[in-house]
Amino acid sequence: MAQAKKTQGEMTVREAGRKGGETTAERHGHEFYEEIGRKGGVKVRDEYGVQFYEEIGHKGGQKVRDLIEEGKRAMGSSQTPSKRSK
């Protein structure tokens, strides 16, 4: 990543974003983020439907499974952990 050059008194985009995020968090609090997250989720649901969440959930699960298998191979372990009994 290239190092951003700045002169005295200026800030990088990264610094400005961090500062803005901190200010927003101080002004609005945790509940603000919960509310905008809920609104965003409802909007996506209404636009793409429930099946969209099912698809991305499945893709996420597949990715996790693949990463676990890759980690096992990297560690030289071919054994799969035993399943816990219910």
Measure the end-to-end span. 49 Å
Query: Which spans of ≥5 residues are poorly predicted at pLDDT below 50?
Result: none
Strand content: under 5%
Number of strands: 0
Order of helices and strands: HH
| Tally of individual helices | 2
Q: Tell me the Rg in angstroms.
A: 22 Å
Number of domains: 1
pLDDT averaged over residues: 85
Helix/strand-derived category reads: mainly alpha
Overall shape: it is flat
Question: Helix amount, in percent?
Answer: over 70%
Give a summary of the structure in a few sentences.
The protein is mostly helical. Helix content is about 70%, strand content about 0%.
Q: Can you offer a commentary on this structure?
A:
This protein has 86 residues and is an all-alpha fold. It has one domain (14-75). The protein has helices at 13-48, 50-75. The chain is flat and about 50 Å long.
Please give a handful of descriptors for the protein shown.
86 residues; mainly alpha; 72% helix; 0% strand
List the helices and strands and how they pair.
Layout: H1 13-48, H2 50-75
